[in-house]
């Protein structure tokens, strides 16, 4: 085991050769809004940064487990400062890239993790501009002159929400947005994401440490569980021998109404040989997807604990009820709590607002049975099969109004349901104080 501070320093030194942030003002954290967008076939969570010379706003679908930033360079990319990354350069090796195009430009596959489409694209560097923050408001705008990204094309862009031309990868790589910002401004390798449940209000993404002021400083009320590594890539275009860059946590058991749900626990751990099993967190999966035996066990326990009759399900869900049979409170539908018991013996409590999805007079348990064939691209099915690579993929609906902080240096996840704090993800004050 190499001490993590050694990895950290060798990582920094790779970056020192590149000209970085030019302003003398050094931000401690950065902030961007995240909007829930329902213009595509499934909800996407969209953020915006400014890029290029002259600067233009670029809308990006947030991909928590994506390895990098990619944007469509085939259509509408105009910039006097965009530079291709030469083969064999330090920047090229940060991408773990093995590919080189005819004109000696380093490349790697940009993947649309919503549709599962990947192509090959050149790696470029260009200026990116973003708001700094003191945790209370957006502050002074800062820029990174040589922010690395992969050039995508129209075919990879297809399927993203209206006006979106790329994806913002926040995953466990040296070139994801959190890593590039942290090294450009030498702040902590932490970021926090908070998805709003409404399409009318903004959620928020912070790069760097707290405070994260959402009426209260949420960084002060987090509980922590280790982030787990998966030694086998789970990406649509990973290379053999590469670890997964997605965020996994250790679910030890699942409880419904405080009762343990009987599960095949070997599905909950990651098979270190083939990378199967375990639990990951995803912002491109709109709903949590469960391996079929886990789905059946949780659904059965939930129906029993709720004690009201089921009605014909609404796809993609399989367990639905009549809305009139359910009571409602500030915490959403009054249904049995579903608890994920995690490593460190902390509990992720999924309340009604996160567990249920309502369609007028029908309300469904908002979990999807992997065996019923949801988007194969998003859960990593083995070709032709119905067995997902990852047993539990915690999807965006279950993340809404929870703040999640990812600490890359100590490899831990901090989380808190904001319902418990009487606030929500839309409560960051986006009025600039600069
Ligand atoms: C900074 O924040 C302000 C206020 O929210 C916003 O209008 C502006 O576009 C942001 N700037 C950048 C570079 O994102
Ligand atoms: C439990 O899951 C593992 C991994 O998929 C499988 O190999 C095993 O047969 C399952 N055990 C039972 C009792 O179903
Ligand atoms: C939001 O921040 C601005 C700038 O600091 C401040 O003037 C305004 O009162 C704040 N709004 C709320 C609702 O706190």
From TrEMBL:
TM spans (from-to): none
SUPFAM superfamilies registered for this protein in UniProt: Acid proteases
Peptidase A1 domain ranges (all copies): 45-416
Source organism superkingdom: Eukaryota
Signal peptide feature range: 1-21
Keyword Ligase: no
Gene3D superfamilies registered for this protein in UniProt: Acid Proteases
Coiled-coil parts of chain: none
Cell location: Secreted, Extracellular space
Listed GO MF terms: aspartic-type endopeptidase activity
Keywords: Secreted, Signal
GO BP, sorted A to Z: proteolysis
Similarity-based family: Belongs to the peptidase A1 family.
Name of the protein: Peptidase A1 domain-containing protein
Biological source species: Clitoria ternatea
